[in-house]
Amino acid sequence: MTTWLNMSLQDGASPIMEQLVFFHDHVLMIMLMITTTVSYMMITLIRNKQTSRFMLEGQMIETTWTIAPAIILVFIAMPSLRLLYLMDEVHNPSLTLKAIGHQWYWSYEYSDFTKLEFDSYMIPQEEQQESTFRLLDTDNRIVLPMNSPIRMIVTAADVLHSWTIPSLGVKTDATPGRLNQTSFSISRPGILYGQCSEICGANHSFMPITIESVPAKYFINWVSKMSE
Ligand SMILES: [Cu+2]
Predict the structure, then answer these.
(1) Ligand 1 centre distance from Cα of residue 181 (Å)
(2) Residue list, CB under 5 A from ion ligand 1
(3) How many CA atoms lie within 13 A of 158 on its CB side?
(4) The CATH classification of domain 95-227, taken from the options 3.40.50.10260, 2.60.40.420, 1.20.1560.10, 3.40.50.720
């Protein structure tokens, strides 16, 4: 989760998010190069007066500064498209989780098991404890096994919502009458937080998402306990 003074992206908890962070840094480096060059040129132009009666055009430099930005754009577009298609792929999932957005809570269905479904409400401020995070913790956390490919099916029961976990690089619209799909695999154990990311009404800010990422054997224990 984000903590104080974290001005950048959260640490990636999935391979895709790791790649997204690399891409973000890569684009920032290119932007740094462009801003440095352009501001150097602008400052020189302002501070110097260079005029020539005979220099009316410069074919060479004009060709260069038309083509160079196009080449730079290719270096941004290529890795961007690679990531886009990588995120779209569902790699042989070992588990499917269905999230349904309601006004104003999420409900979850583990369709691989019988009768494993629950609602997940935010813990209200009055019931806060030392260990809970305000506006982020839920009464029933999603439990998922780490290091296994997971397929998410996202939908809504009333209005538009959006199921989001920043540290996994996942954001999917929850639309009534539609099933949207994404996938991810969590690379470490821990608790991951997210919030509804589509303005869905008065309590939009109060329907967080909490994932408990655990090793597979703990997950199996949890499943058998839940479906008793
Ligand atoms: Cu919502």
Answers:
(1) 17
(2) 161, 196, 200
(3) 12
(4) 2.60.40.420
